[in-house]
Amino acid sequence: MAAIIKETQSIKQAVTLINGIDPGKFPRLLSRILQKLHLKAERSFSEEEEEKLQSAFSLEKQDLQLILETVSFILEQAVYHNVKPASLQQQLENVHLNPEKAEAFAQAWATTGQETVEKFRQRMFAPKKLESVGWQLSLQMAQSTQAKMKSPRAVLELGVRSEDSENSEKMFVEFSHEELLDFYNKNVILSCS
Description:
Shape: elongated
Oligomer: single chain
Strand order of the largest sheet: 1-2-3
Distance between the termini: 39 Å
Order of helices and strands: HHHHHHEEEH
Structural class: alpha+beta
Number of helices: 7
Number of strands: 3
């Protein structure tokens, strides 16, 4: 299998830093990053948690950031290539990661790798997803300049949700009779294709 992790300067620097992390604490760090990996807009750790990690690992802020970004990158590559745990371990050892750290990656990947791949597969590619549709129809019968008229207006209420949000956002779209008919016909064409 081709290498999924190229030994760049930042990878070399991150590997040196990762090799220096306490082996007892590293698997928990991996586990947490794996839990949040599929959430694009959400960080693995809050600012406060990152400060605690800095002191726990005796690292500078930029070094911790490099470690977190590199671990996330490695795991994202594992997801993208859907590698087996043994292959991941071998590739990490090829970029000079300590065997015990490479084994920690392999064990974490063996435990939650398939679940993480599945979460990535289920992740939406569209920024918003339609959750609900409501509608209201009104009929305007007269206007100050026109005594007799019939002007139907439809209002669609679209409940949309962002991929990373729990809250639904409501959008309202108003149509005249002609606009609604045109919208309907375009949807029929789309659904038939």
